[in-house]
Write a structure and sequence with these properties.
Layout: H1 2-18, H2 22-35, E1 41-49, E2 53-62, E3 65-72, E4 75-81, E5 85-90, E6 95-100, H3 110-114, H4 120-123, E7 124-131, E8 135-142, E9 154-160, E10 166-173, E11 176-185, E12 203-206
Parallel strand pairs: 6-12
Antiparallel strand pairs: 1-2, 1-11, 2-3, 3-4, 4-5, 5-6, 7-8, 8-9, 9-10, 10-11
């Protein structure tokens, strides 16, 4: 019996040695994301706004280029940007609107949203809220040292075990709730590059402001 107790004590000590703190787990997540940065990131962004409701977009990001797919007013919409110009394509209506980056009312902010996965360990106090067989779930509360006035007060974060990829991130700021999920890596540059030949006969409206 004594030998069994000693063995269990040794196992417990070993498990404690390998235990990871919330900060270490999230830091590992950030490190894994940095490793795949050059490959491009894919994620689903659900934005819940007062009156408007929830708008869900599938985003493909590679450097300054991004492709966003969503449905607005019952119509599929595909948006491209290269950081300078935006192309909003409505395949069913066979129309394309060109604007300067950031001028379109439907322009997404996924470049900024993807950055929400960065520096969580520096700006937030992390608590493990629950754990399942395949993921850790954290509550991240804005720390007193975080002087970013636009940063959400609380972030709910789930990290997948094994890959350490983010499984889900949910945050609320200024009455808007943003949920990021289905994160993966590997984006083909051709897929995120606008090509007018993909929309033969489309009506093109160039609404860019001349500079």
């Amino acid at each position: 019996m004594k030998k069994m107790i000693c063995l269990l004590s040794v196992i417990a000590c070993c498990l404690a040695a390998f235990a990871q703190t919330p900060q270490e787990i999230v830091a590992r997540m950030e490190s894994e994301m940095d490793k795949h940065e050059s490959e491009g990131m894919i994620m689903t962004v659900a934005t819940k706004m007062p009156i408007v409701g929830t708008v869900t977009m599938k985003n493909y990001i590679l450097g300054d280029k991004m492709r966003s797919e969503t449905k607005l007013l019952g119509q599929d919409v595909i948006m491209f940007t290269d950081g300078v110009t935006e192309w909003t394509c409505m395949p069913k209506a066979n129309k394309i609107k060109i604007t300067n980056h950031g001028e379109s009312s439907s322009s997404g902010s996924s470049e900024n949203e993807s950055e929400m996965f960065s520096d969580i360990t520096d700006g937030y106090d992390l608590t493990l809220s629950r754990e399942t067989a395949d993921a850790w779930y954290f509550t991240c509360k804005k720390s007193k040292s975080n002087k970013d006035k636009d940063a959400p007060k609380t972030i709910d974060l789930a990290v997948s075990k094994g890959t350490y990829y983010p499984k889900l991130l949910k945050a609320k700021a200024s009455g808007i709730t943003i949920t990021l999920s289905d994160v993966s890596f590997g984006v083909d540059e051709k897929f995120v590059t606008f090509n007018l030949n993909d929309y033969p006969g489309a009506e093109v409206e160039d609404a860019r402001e001349k500079k």
